Amino acid sequence: MHAKDGSSELAALFAQYGVEPFLEATSSLVALLDKEGRLLSWNPAFAARKPPAHDKICLKDLLSPARASVCEQLLATALDQRIRTKGELEFAGETGSDNFVCLFIPMPGECVLFIGEPVARAATLEEVTAELQSTKRILAIKETELKAVLAQADEVSHTDALTFVPNRRQIIGDLQREVIFSDRYGTPLTISMLDVDYFKKINDTYGHPVGDDVLRSLAGELRDHIRYPDTIGRYGGDEFLIVLPHSMLNAAVQQAERLCTHVRSLLIKLGEREIGLTISMGIAQYKVHREDWQTLLSRADTALYWAKNNGRDQWVASEE
Fold this sequence. Notes:
Elements: H1 8-15, H2 20-25, E1 29-33, E2 39-42, H3 44-47, H4 65-81, E3 85-93, E4 96-107, E5 111-118, H5 126-157, H6 168-185, E6 189-196, H7 199-206, H8 208-224, E7 231-236, E8 239-245, H9 249-265, E9 267-270, E10 273-276, E11 279-285, H10 293-309, E12 315-317
Helix pairs in contact: 7-8
């Protein structure tokens, strides 16, 4: 619908309630009137009843003279008492007159919503109401489906496709938000970087598909063995980052000890194979107001380097 056909205001009104398609599809006459009964906006079905060259006309001008006073009374009652009024009006036409059951609904701004239904097709406006409700139900279903698709797309964009834990972008975003929170409220924050010991050897021995299966299984184990609200994400390759909000260094150390022990005891079953793993971890506590998230990551990464360089299968905490 376009402004030139007098429907823009009506479309905007119906769009507020999510039922704009009703205006296009319905055969009912729908129009928006001002307090004098002048036509402000109308739907295509109403346009077919109105002389095309006359826009600034009153609703009563389209009626038989005998019913014009009834129209004025219904309109006045709807406006003065702010209630819905209902009556039967006769629309004059080139080929004769048609009777309509009409409803006048008061709207904000001294406007009135007019709905007319041919008497020959329906003695009441029940069909109009049913049609409107049906349209609203269909739109509600479509909206629910759209929300589900958008939610799924959002989840996919933040999840690592291989391991199903948060991807690098998401876990870094989590870290940045926790750093801001820590700076604002002075709460402790600690992180742990970890990777799989001798992971290249696993890929070289068994092939990259097996290596992918190992990472996927390990990610699930790590995710299931950290506390809430700690989060773990894939930082890259075989490296993972754990963010521990509201945690001092000793809490991260205890967690690292548990994770190293748990992974050491694992035998990841892949078909007929059983593959043992160990991990190395680097830990760093955030220095509130004295560093940024990049520096914190760098210190944890340096601690991880020392853990791997001094024998692997262990954790090292940054003392800087």
